Amino acid sequence: MEQLFTILSISIPLLLVTWLLSEKWQFLPMLIATSYFLSSSSPLSLLLLTTTTLTSYYILRHINSIGAATLIVIIQIASIFLFFKLKHGVSFTISENKIMPIGLSYYAFRQIHYAIESYKKQTPVHTIIDYFNYMFFLPTLLVGPINRFSPFLKDYKKRRWNSHFFSEGLERILYGLVKIIFLGNYLINLKLNNYTFNLSNEYEWLQAYLNMFGFTANSYIQFAGYSDIAIGLSLLFGFRINENFNSPFLASNIADFWRRYHISLSEWCRDYVYFPFLAITRNSKISILLAMLILGIWHEVSLRYLLWGFSHAIAINFWYKYENSALHKKLNRLPLFKKGLGIFITLHFVMLSFLLISEETLLDSFHIFKILFFLKNELYV
After folding, report:
1. Helix 66-87 / helix 104-119 crossing angle, nearest 10 deg
2. What pLDDT, on the 0 to 100 scale, is given for residue 89?
3. How is residue 360 annotated by DSSP?
4. Cα Rg of the chain, angstroms
5. How far apart are the first and last CA of the chain?
6. Which ranges in the chain belong to alpha helices (H)?
7. What gap in Å lies between CA 137 and CA 31, rounded to an integer?
8. pLDDT for 253
9. Which tens digit of pLDDT belongs to each residue from 191-209?
10. Contact partners, residue 183, CB within 8 Å, separation at least 6
């Protein structure tokens, strides 16, 4: 939260300077501000971001084989990513650890995206300065979304002062702050947590259920709030970046959920994991499994996140099989019931899956599963 407010405070003078300068120099203050923020918060982050941005750009242009160059860049970024993930891990909140590279999860996946799009010759003509502007874009540095290079460069080339963008951006920042401070911190972290904590032992099931609901709701609200602020700040600077959430808990099936939840990450996994492996294996089930495992590892390299990704892969594959079943076709005659049932089942599957990552250990998670499904063993210690 402290880092978020630091970025907001930096952005106020940065906005003024950016729009007052001539077009040629407008993004120089952004590079300086991002470098200052990283150097004061995590010097290692600045070193890694600068080094990998330079090396990935030059490798892709100075190695004759674009295939080999792309592979080198991916291995380089993946190795750095896995090294720090294995050493530190990451949670749903922004890490306060000064050693953990800030924004690594996001700029690592942006660089892999850039490398693969370069291999496919899908990147527009640009310079190293354009690439630095993309990688050092302050609004999406901390918590995404994982915005893509071509739309960013398009906005960069045509950006002009737009009062509609500015007012919309201020609204989105306000929405984000309300989500984080009021809905997340006050209603869930304070009020709901206090209520569940004070429940007596005879309401153990209700306590477990409300804690599960609170963790899931808070994870979404905090993340969606940070995304709103990032999108709002981007609009203030003249950029419309991709949305990251679209009412995910109104999804009527698990596949629809991942089209609505953390959209930039799920689309990244679809484009750079699912489709390539589908082309190689011709097996959609395996491709879905690999995509969801990568999605889990993006959060944290651990058994619990692998199980979390695996459970969602199983659920998505089950959904696609069920979608073609006779029962599903019969339920089409009752569209309102079918939609309501789908939302109920999807929401509770997501909440139950989040139990795998909400507790300190998997043993603690399984204990809560026992309570929720009335399987608690009194000998459990």
Report:
1. 170
2. 47
3. S
4. 22
5. 36
6. 2-20, 28-41, 43-62, 66-87, 104-119, 128-135, 149-158, 163-177, 193-197, 204-236, 254-260, 263-269, 275-281, 284-299, 303-323, 326-331, 335-358, 362-372
7. 8
8. 95
9. 999 999 888 788 899 999 9
10. 221, 225
Prediction pTM value: 0.91
The dihedral of CA 199, 200, 206, 208: what is its sign? positive
Task: Give the chain's residues under pLDDT 70.
Answer: 87-100, 377-381
Tell me the two tokens of residue 306: 């692998």
Contact 100, 42 (CB under 8 A): yes
Cα(292)–Cα(274) distance, integer angstroms: 9
Please state, in angstroms and rounded to a whole number, the distance separating the CA atoms of residues 375 and 109.
41
Report DSSP state, residue 240: -
Q: Is the peptide bond before 248 cis (omega within 30 degrees of 0)?
A: no
d(CA 209, CA 229): 30
Spatial distance between the Cα atoms of 288 and 309, rounded to a whole number of angstroms: 10
d(CA 179, CA 187): 10
Which class for 375: exposed (0-12), middle (13-18), buried (19 or more C-beta within 10 A)?
exposed
Q: Can you give the residue ranges of every domain in the chain?
A: 2-158, 163-236, 248-372
Retrieve residue 312's tokens.
């969602």
Predicted local confidence at residue 3, as pLDDT: 78
The type of residue at 99 is I
Of 175, 169, 130, 177, nearest to 150 by C-alpha is 130
User: What's the one-letter identity of residue 108?
Assistant: A
CA distance 86 to 360: 17
pLDDT score recorded for residue 91: 40
**Backbone angles phi and psi of 126, in degrees to 5:** -160, 170
List of residues 6+ apart from 299 with CB closer than 8 A: 90, 92, 105, 305, 308, 357
Round to whole Å and give the CA distance between 221 and 16.
Answer: 30
Q: Which pLDDT tens digit goes with each residue over 130-174?
A: 999 999 999 999 888 999 999 999 999 888 888 899 999 999 999
